[in-house]
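Page 47, continued from p. 46.
Same chain as before, 75 aa.
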Amino acid sequence: MGELVKYIAQALVDNPEEVTVNEVEGEQSIIIELKVAPEDMGKVIGKQGRIAKAIRTVVKAAATKENKRVIVEII
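Result:
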């Protein structure tokens, strides 16, 4: 899941080398922390959070195959 989030985020930002993804895995859920450069924060979140919501939707769909619950946090 983390690789998917990293791939999407790197395609959106101006500084792809500053994208870091940290996965914290529990029994039923996975928390994915996405960190980008401060000037790229708006590109990842989007207007009214639309891009962030789209990223969460795609990751949630991928996680459904593994019967896991995924939470994507943008730091």
